[in-house]
Amino acid sequence: MAVDSVLSSPLGPPACEKDAKALQFIEEMTRNADAVQERVLNEILTRNSQTEYLKRFKLDGVSDRETFKTKIPVVTYEDLQPEIQRIANGDRSPILSAHPISEFLTSSGTSAGERKLMPTIKEELDRRQLLYSLLMPVMNLYVPGLDKGKGLYFLFIKSETKTPGGLLARPVLTSYYKSEHFKRRPHDPYNVYTSPNEAILCADSFQSMYTQMLCGLYEREQVLRLGAVFASGLVRAIRFLQLHWPQLAHDIRTGTLNHEITDPSICERMGLVMRPNSKLADFIADECSKENWEGIITRIWPKTKYLDVIVTGAMAQYIPTLDYYSGGLPKACTMYAASECYFGLNLNPMCKPSEVSYTIMPNMGYFEFLPHDPNSSRDSIRNLVDLVDVKVGKEYELVITTYAGLYRYRVGDILRVTGFHNSAPQFHFVRRKNVLLSIDSDKTDEAELQRAVENASKLLKEFNTSVVEYTSYADTKTIPGHYVIYWELLMKDLNNSPSDEVLNKCCLAMEESLNTVYRQGRVACNSIGPLEIRVVKNGTFEELMDYAISRGASINQYKVPRCVSFAPILELLDSRVMSRHFSPSLPQWTPERRR
User: Which of 46, 139, 173, 580 is most buried by its number of CB atoms within 10 A?
Assistant: First the structure.
């Protein structure tokens, strides 16, 4: 097969022979998606046939789809928690996987306020690395010349803990960045970073960000793309530049490193980088001291061709901010992955954010799809369909079976089928199921928000005051973004109403009630700002209902939305605000100790 016919592209042939092989692999996998899925399921069930979990359901070594679907139940994390806890506590028998569990990957989703623990095995790193290796060959089809410069990517590790049984528990990207796959990756001219490994692997978020930004400024003429995992991370990096450019410019002018950077490995590496450059320092000072930061990305890094960030799902709220800072540069969403499994990639990465679709790679795991009806609260679990049998335009919840020992596991992602590449479906990520609020990697659902409001409102009892109604909003106009909670209060004794101090404490009480991922974002990562309560006038939520009814809602079925984003509703709420209150301090957070 000729390299220019491997994957159709308006930009012509693959950039090199290595790319041609990667693109051919994509074609082979997607052309034979159903056969690959059958093989994957057979491999998973055969190798794990003697595990306690599969023996419990009397699969008896059978590995065909129909028997699997008949005997193995569809499960949630809570269903698997007893088995996961046993592994975490040190049980090394083959409970879920015949291969030893090498570590736990902590999900950004939570259960009972703590991160979920996803079991993984060593070979999963190879599978993740395989998907990563496909990204640049696809991108090179659309953006030529990426081998002529570098990528400024803001990449970070997060805290890790050990379970009582001694297994590491850490986020999937922390696991990857600390692996030999990443640290000893072979040189690839199409995928060179300005950030040194020493900065990426520094656990101190300030030192890591400062060093990565400093290196990116030194190599501003070499930078062809900027990126972070999530859009929120790139917005936070630009805000960091706004706050710290004077010190960064000073370091560049003098060729000396900020005394706040004390990590030995960073200091040693930066000794090779630091050099006086007054011309560059003057340029940075001149650009960053301007009041208008519109287009700052292309002003500082003039050769930038695109931004490599996730802007689907909850991250779409950052698109206007990124457009402002970048002058409307394309935003590439390259891959779809989670702690449980890496799923697929975007074969048209330069499309508009609203048109992003991910092609599921059938070799990554075994995939089933639970039809999702947004107007129904019931799931039709018996009607799961296979990867190649989904219907264009329909929405589904993703259900996975992995090599690491998850069987028919509900991921919680809602996807809409947009089309097919060969026989593999392409999906638009709609949302996380049941998630109301999200600023960064945090995910807060309705039950958790309700619990936080209830806990905070206990502080109002001595003032004979209660929360009549509430709703919420993820405000990303501030950097970092923060949760806004609208409260309508019933004050029975106006002479003993709660003070500003009390309402500020209510903000903190809400934060203390939210999950560990949220609190880590507040305390350790500085990726979430202080929670805000806006007290609205009495009758505001009646007006909200009247507005909804005027737009066709049924008065009999109307429920107060617990999260709002529609601009006219936000305008109505904000026009009724009587007072605003913020959390006065940081909530409690320490790295989780696994019991």
Answer: 139
